[in-house]
Amino acid sequence: MKIGILGGGQLGRMLLQAGINYVVDTYVLENDEHCPAAHLCHHFIKGNIQDFESVYNFGKHLDAITIEIESVNVDALEKLESEGVRVYPSSAALRIIKNKVTQKQFYQQNQIPTSEFVITNSLEELKNKINFLPAVHKLGEGGYDGKGVQLIKDEQDIESGFSQTSVLEKMILIQKEIAVIVAVNEKGEFAVYPPAEMVFDARYNLLDYQISPAIISKEVFWKIEAIAIKVVKELKSAGIFAVELFVDKKNDILVNEIAPRVHNSGHHSIEGNYSSQFDMLWRILLQLPLGNTAPILPSAIVNIVGEDGHVGKAVYEGLDEVLKMNNAFVHLYGKTHTKPGRKMGHVTILANEYSELSHKAHKIKNVLKVVSYQ
Hints:
There is one protein chain. This protein has three domains: 2-88, Rossmann fold (3-Layer(aba) Sandwich), CATH 3.40.50; 116-170, 2-Layer Sandwich (Dna Ligase, domain 1); 174-371, D-amino Acid Aminotransferase, Chain A, domain 1, CATH 3.30.470.20. By secondary structure, the chain is α+β, with helices and mostly antiparallel strands. The protein has eleven helices and 22 strands. It has helices at residues 10-19, 52-59, 74-82, 91-98, 100-109, 123-127, 218-235, 269-272, 277-285, 319-323, 354-367; strands spanning 2-6, 25-30, 43-46, 64-67, 86-88, 117-120, 135-139, 149-152, 166-170, 174-184, 190-192, 196-201, 206-212, 239-248, 253-259, 299-305, 312-313, 315-317, 328-332, 337-338, 343-350, 369-371. The strands form five sheets. Strands 10, 11, 12, 13, 14, 15, 16, 19 and 21 form a nine-stranded antiparallel sheet that branches. It is globular and about 55 Å long. The longest helix has 18 residues, at 218-235.
């Protein structure tokens, strides 16, 4: 089969690495011929994933197409679907998910528990929502990796909000933040990965490290799984989805966001689960049986991000020390240049004991640094 990927970043790179196990002809569309995925595909096409003609011409001779980022031309994907190209996720599901306004409205319409919210279109409208504070302001479109998200605690923070159409979400007291990867094929068969517990870096609002399976009660586990499956069922699309959820202080579950693709919160599955999220997506793309989501061992991942004050050619300090650790697996994304907060790679850790996972995660964070001397 001829399979296309819109976007050539690290997610495309890891997807192509998993695709080596299958008989498949791979295509990537991306503006930058030096992107992380460019040299791993069979056919690289330079082009704009947001341009209708570029996406349509890229996909019209393919059997199936998927994405590694939401900001793609959905109209082109819809036309390709109408002409028989299989698209994962579907254009209809992607329209819902790529805008945080329509995403929140989707939860509301389908009785999916989520935090209370209002829509704002300008700073003036935001100023009229003082009684709704404290809240989190999220850009409808254009935000990524913590960008486009602003905490509005009180009236003094309003000027740091967004003047474009955005979602203002009521702040809730969170006990845990959980992510669940859900896969569904064209037959409507589901495969659900064990929940992962996320810990965030307050500096960049990026995932700092995570542990999987999450340390939660059976009651919370079953609630999370049921809600995650309901979310994906209501989207009515085959593909792989990351459902991010909050567990509040009362053990109630609220859906935060969905990502319609492989996701940072599932990277541990490369070594930690029998079928990784990337392998699972290939199975869906190639219309093969779904894989085994069971964990091999408890796992943790640590993001490798660019250090503050360093912009330029990337240098990995402490890499040798991390590579000497038992059951630590380093993934570098092939990005030659660093900047503060930029995702440059991740490390997966496997261990029988959660205490060892946490200990090694903190050690890696302190040892491995991405800097630049230019």
